[in-house]
Structure formats: C-alpha cells, structure tokens
Amino acid sequence: MSSQCLSTVRSFGGEQHRFQHRSTVLKCDMIYAVYLPPQAANGPVPVVYYLSGLTCTDENFVTKAGAQRHAAELGVAIVAPDTSPRGDKVADDPDGSYDMGLGAGFYLNATEAPWSSHYHMYDYVLTELPEAVAQACPQVDTSRAAIMGHSMGGHGALTIGLKNPHCFTSFSAFSPIVAPTQCPWGQKAFSNYLGSDTSTWDAYDTCKLLGQAAEHRPILIDQGTADNFLAEQLKTHLIEEASSAANYPIEVRMQEGYDHSYYFIASFIEDHLRFHAAHLQA
Which domains does the chain have, with CATH numbers? Predict the structure, then answer.
C-alpha cells in the first residue's frame, strides 16, 4: 500500500505531489496526485476528490483546472486519481476506441471477463485510494471529504457519492454523464463491463440512484450549453427530471456558451471548491 513520491512542486504556498503505489484492488500500479494547501503545515485539512473524464490521467486536472490557488485559500486538499487501471496486462478496447478500456474505467466494478480482472475503479476510489492518501499524506483528514468530477468523472462522483453519503459531505460535477444507461457511452461501457443484464446497470446511473437515496447531500452541477456532447451523451435534462421526481433538491446551472473543455472547468472551479469547502468546514 505504501506510495512512492514521484514529484513535488511548490504551488500557491502549498505542495503539488504525484504518487505511485501498487493497487491491490486493481492489480496494477496506479498514480494519483495530491495538492496540500499551506494550512496542512499546521494541522489536518479536509479533502476534495476529483475524478477525471474519458482519456484523462491524473495530470489533466492538476495542470489545466487552476484549482491550486483556490484550494490554498480555502485550506482544502485535492486528490486526483487516474481514470482506469493501467499496464500491459490490463484489458483494453480491441478496437482502440477512447470510450472503453484504458482511460475509461467508468468508476464501476466490472463483473464480465476480461474486464473483471482489473476494472474495479469504484472500490479503488471509495476505499483503497483514501487509505493510500492517508498513509502518504497524514496531513489529509480523509474523514472529512467531498467528491467532484468531469464528464465520466462527474458520473463517477455523483454515483459514488449517492451510494455512500456517509463518506462525503457534498457532490458536484462538470458536464456529467447523468444517465449512462440511456446514452451511447454508457451503454457501450456497461454492456462490456457489466454484461447484458441491464438491471445491473441501474446501480451506476445517477438518475436511478436519486430516487433510491435515503440521505440527501448538496449537489452542484455545471453544464455548458455549447457542449457538443450535451444532446447525445450528457442529457442534463434527465437529471433535472429525476431530481424533481425524487424530491431530491440539486442545483443545475446551464452555463451559456461554454463547451466540454478544461476552459469551462477552469472558469467555474472556484465556485465548486467554495461549495465543497462550505460543507466540509460547517
């Protein structure tokens, strides 16, 4: 479980770390990033987990989102894991597509071969990653946590949060896949990872989980109106309908003219970190 520090750089008075460790859950070596704000030098700080989208690694958010400045001000750590298991022995899409296999773990526990050997990102994010972070960075208080993500990672943050409200004070997402059972990305991944029994898919569908939630946590979603994936893949209107039907209040902000890129995330990352910090420090 012990992590090796690959790099450390100063950033806004804090430190941006990159670690590698052997994952028992995923049966491969994994890399994750941790930003420690300057307040970590004086005592434990809460943490926000950020889950990235298709094709991304731990580095996209760290280098593009501009989150460190705001995390340093707010006194929160940020943990950014990779998006799938990695390595020569890890199954990949035989067609080389970007939306399944390496870089496309979908934050679930695969049950179908060959994916079931390694693709258990749900368990990894929920249990093994916090344990690794707590050991590598004891300044991080993993008992005070929030979770957020983008696109596939937004799907991951919302589903993991909804299924484990005792672990996270709040959830948020940029451009999330809110109904993977009803879009091509999700249908392709779920049919391969989870099999043809579509009843098992509902366990990883945010719109389905809203109606089953026994506890309500604050949820913030930002979605760009110029996102070229909005109509076919993201279908944000479905979570608004599900929220109303489940009587689960969420905040959905449609941001005029913004697309699916990290320019969008960087524009609103401060809002999301302030949203989480308010609940983490309440």
Answer: 4-277 (3.40.50.1820)
Catalytic residues: 151, 227, 260
Q: pLDDT per position in the chain (282 positions), as tens?
A: 699 999 999 999 999 999 999 999 999 999 999 999 999 999 999 999 999 999 999 999 999 999 999 999 999 999 999 999 999 999 999 999 999 999 999 999 999 999 999 999 999 999 999 999 999 999 999 999 999 999 999 999 999 999 999 999 999 999 999 999 999 999 999 999 999 999 999 999 999 999 999 899 999 999 999 999 999 999 999 999 999 999 999 999 999 999 999 999 999 999 999 999 999 987
The closest of 174, 168, 175 to 233, measured between CA atoms, is 175
Distance CA 67, CA 64 (A): 8
- Is this structure's pTM higher than 0.85? yes
Please report the DSSP string for the chain in residue order: ---EEEEEEEETTEEEEEEEEEETTTTEEEEEEEEEPGGGGTS-EEEEEEE--TT--SHHHHHHS--HHHHHHHT-EEEEE-SS--STTS---TT--TTSBTTB-TTSB--STTGGGT-BHHHIIIIIHHHHHHHH-TTEEEEEEEEEEETHHHHHHHHHHHH-TTT-S-EEEES----GGGSHHHHHHHHHHT-S-GGGGGGG-HHHHHTT-SS---EEEEEETT-TTIIIII-HHHHHHHHHHHT---EEEEETT--SSHHHHHHHHHHHHHHHHHHHT-
